[in-house]
Design a protein that fits this description.
The complex is a heterodimer of chains A (304) and B (436). With 304 residues, chain A is mainly β. In chain A, 0% of the residues lie in helices and 37% in strands. Chain A is built from no helices and 22 strands. Chain B folds into two domains: 84 residues, no CATH class; 311 residues, Methylamine Dehydrogenase, Chain H (7 Propeller). The chains are: A mainly beta (304), B mainly beta (436). Chains A and B meet through β1, β3, β16, β19 and β20 of A and α1, α3, α4, β1 and β2 of B. β1 of chain A pairs antiparallel with β30 of chain B, so a sheet runs across the interface.
Chain lengths: 304, 436
């Protein structure tokens, strides 16, 4: 945890770590529940979702842990919280599923709803956000070549093998290798952190087994944040009703600002700040215009 | 680096003020909007440079397209400098490999993605950083979020493993320096963490976190060469394995485990969903442990013995090394910032025979350890303090190190990131939360 005004090379003001926390050193998601003052973390290497008190510090156990055969969790990667409807959502790329639990769920409990199946289009789900005001759930899901890569927008109560109500993705969108997604509850604007514009590369292994027929390429460093100018990442912003193969309505991009590998994005809606994480650091951008209703690109008036 | 960042930002700011035409939208900005921005800036007492950046960013084109690029068309925003930036410009010490033949010590640096080579006698009482005699750094190196490091003193080569960002083992020579291609590379399973060489067998062992596995390769394997055998499965008791030591003297593989376990299934977007996995197994949190497997083990094989339990004090154990003359194992115990030394033959809920821990030791977040039987020393790489500490080989308790090797000036903080890729904002505490 860092003070919002932290700047430069600073140590965190608070750390939760150690054996008793049940955390691992591999976590790719986080959510903060401001109504209930709790921190929610998926632990991919333990098939679990942990909940900590908002002021947790040091080697403290979680107040709740969702884990077990009924949960159907294998490798939960990202997480979101809907404090209005009292739900915790996680996405599991191994299960190709968005899984919704009661916020107070603890132990070996079954999810309330599961969005999964061929109609959903979900595969490598690496970002997740819930908008209780507009009643939608957004999953950021990647695919290698072809198929749908982008933001999958579902009704909040969607359950089972259902098609998304909207989808943002396609060549004009340049969406490819992204991760965390966030929603501004005031406007419904959707923020997405994209590490680079190259599609996810095929890995040499399927878990611990060499992939049959795999051939090395010279540029198999798809997660690299080395800052290739032609494939640099960005933070993209969309309007809540966006749908189809469209470019972002607002964007933060490099070079020169160390945003080559933005993997995470968080919002401070009160201060109109956007926090982008990647490359072993984070940057804060002050952009009040990104927290207004966004008109379609090319329209005569961007402001409401 | 902080200066560079601020300078870059300031230069951008000046450029925007001096050269950028104000967009039509910017010209139409009403006083109330600018006041709102000024209010936001004033509330935080942001310094002059940050204020300039924010005000300049406010004037970026709103309708006329982004001046520096044509994509996306007519979008607001563009190349906008941050008002604040948190990162550590210095290297960190992660893995450590000691070469007492050629008197070198090699560190992996996960933060800046580099390998740093020092004279074995480097370090001392100085508050200043020591200069590496050699480093490998840059895009040609293919170094990503590297973890373990190993050295071959005979061939004068050193190895490291990308834990993330390019699933590779890369090998460099003592003659390599700067932004150079590796002498050879080998594709590895994702989340490989450590490498240990077995010179007599001409093999190497690689731990794989997410698969709870140890994969073995021929030492000179390159490209997409397959492992010659793999220890993996429920019986192995491998649980989020990190440090590994190939103990040829006793024909054992010694592994430090964090205790996280899940029955991983393929998740890559290139793989079909796996449904035929048999009985669904629950994820689990096990205690940290050190496992010992037969060197020839292959498949779902139980360990020969395990050190595990409350008395062990194991807490996120990372790198390990073996003292063959004293028949002991040393482990970098990240969770309580200690080094714990066990008898090599220990099993079960065994207490460490020695623990180096306390304020005087200056051990902070240790990730690796190396034993020097020739010079009677024990090295510790501290991820949390930009240092490596060198102790007498049998040091115990809260003792000062003999010397300290620094990669940054004394008391330089570190952010502690190890591939951070998500964030949340804590509204109650006005804080930014980042998981690693």
């Amino acid at each position: 945890m860092f003070a919002r005004l932290a700047n430069g090379n600073v140590a965190p003001s608070r750390v939760i770590e150690g054996q008793a926390t049940n955390l691992s050193r591999t976590m790719h998601g986080i959510a903060y529940d401001e109504i209930n003052d709790e921190i929610i973390i998926p632990v991919a290497l333990s098939g679990a979702v942990l909940v900590f008190k908002g002021d947790a510090k040091g080697e403290v156990p979680p107040v709740r842990a969702i884990q077990g055969t009924r949960t159907r969790l294998v490798r939960p990667h990202t997480v979101a919280v809907d404090p209005v409807n009292n739900e915790i959502l996680t996405a599991d790329p191994s299960m190709r599923a968005i899984v919704v639990f009661d916020r107070m769920a603890s132990g070996n409990v079954a999810p309330k709803r599961v969005i999964s199946g061929p109609k959903t289009g979900l595969l490598d789900i690496v970002g997740l956000a819930a908008d209780p005001i507009r009643n939608v759930i957004i999953g950021a899901s990647r695919k290698g070549n072809g198929d749908q890569v982008g933001l999958f927008i579902f009704d909040r109560l969607a359950n089972g093998d259902v098609a998304p109500k909207a989808f943002i993705g396609g060549p004009k969108s340049k969406l490819a290798h992204f991760r965390q997604v966030a929603i501004d509850p005031g406007t419904g604007n959707i923020f997405l952190a994209q590490q680079n514009t190259r599609m996810k590369q095929m890995e040499a292994y399927v878990l611990d087994k060499p992939r049959e027929g795999f051939k090395l390429k010279d540029d198999d460093d798809d997660d690299s944040d080395s800052g290739r100018l032609d494939t640099m990442g960005f933070v993209a912003v969309y309007a809540p009703d966006d749908n189809g193969d469209i470019p972002p309505r607002a964007i933060i991009k490099g070079p020169g600002i160390r945003l080559a590998g933005a993997a995470g994005v968080a919002l401070n809606t009160k201060k109109k700040e956007i926090i982008a994480v990647g490359g072993n650091g984070f940057q804060t951008f002050l952009l009040p215009d990104f927290f207004r209703a966004l008109k379609k690109p090319g329209s005569t008036n961007q402001q409401p | 680096m902080r200066r560079i960042l601020i300078s870059t930002a300031a230069a951008t700011c000046i450029l925007l003020f001096a050269g950028g035409e104000r967009s039509p939208q910017a010209n139409t900005d009403g006083p109330s909007e600018m006041t709102a921005l000024d209010d936001l800036l004033a509330e935080d007492c942001i310094d002059e440079v940050a204020t300039g950046i924010a005000q300049a960013a406010r004037r970026l084109p709103q309708e006329g397209g982004v001046t520096s690029d044509e994509w996306p068309p007519n979008a607001i925003g563009g190349v906008i400098p941050p008002i604040r930036s948190v990162s550590d410009p210095f290297p960190t010490f992660d893995g450590i490999a000691l070469d007492t033949v050629n008197d070198k010590v090699i560190f992996s640096d996960e933060n800046r993605h580099s390998l740093l080579v020092y004279d074995r006698t480097a370090g001392g009482a100085s508050n200043d950083p020591a200069e590496p005699v050699q480093y490998v750094f840059g895009p040609k190196t293919k170094l990503g979020f590297i973890a373990g490091v190993e050295v071959d003193p005979v061939r004068k080569e050193f190895y490291t493993v990308n834990n993330d960002s390019g699933d590779l083992l890369t090998v460099f020579s003592y003659g390599d320096h700067g932004n150079v291609q590796p002498r050879r590379s080998l594709t590895l399973p994702h989340q490989s963490w450590d490498v240990s060489l077995a010179p007599k067998r001409d093999e190497m062992a690689i731990t794989v976190q997410q698969s709870n596995a140890i994969s073995f390769y021929k030492r000179g394997a390159t490209g997409t060469a397959a492992p010659i055998r793999t220890i993996r499965g429920l019986a192995t008791e491998l649980e989020d394995p990190h440090g590994v030591y190939f103990d040829e003297a006793h024909n054992e593989i010694i592994t430090a485990n964090h205790g996280n376990w899940t029955q991983i299934r393929p998740y890559s977007p290139y793989d079909p969903q796996t449904t035929d996995v048999g009985e669904y197994k629950s994820g689990a949190f096990h205690p940290s442990a050190i496992t010992f497997h037969a060197a020839d083990a292959n498949g779902d094989v139980p360990p020969l013995r395990t050190i595990e339990g409350d008395l062990t004090g194991l807490n996120w154990p990372m790198g390990i090394d073996v003292d063959q003359t004293r028949d002991e194992i040393a482990v970098a115990n990240y969770g309580d910032s200690s080094v714990r030394v066990f008898r090599r033959g220990d099993r079960g809920n065994a207490q460490a025979v020695r623990v180096i821990r306390g304020a005087l030791t200056q051990i902070v977040g240790p990730v690796s350890v190396a034993i020097d039987t020739k010079n009677d020393e024990l090295w510790v790489a501290n991820y949390g303090d930009h240092t490596a500490s060198v102790f007498p080989r049998t040091a115990s308790g809260n003792v000062r190190p003999k010397r300290v090797l620094r990669n940054a000036p004394k008391d330089t903080p570190t952010c502690g990131f190890t591939n951070a890729s998500a964030a949340a904002y804590d509204t109650k505490r006005d804080a930014i939360l980042v998981p690693n």
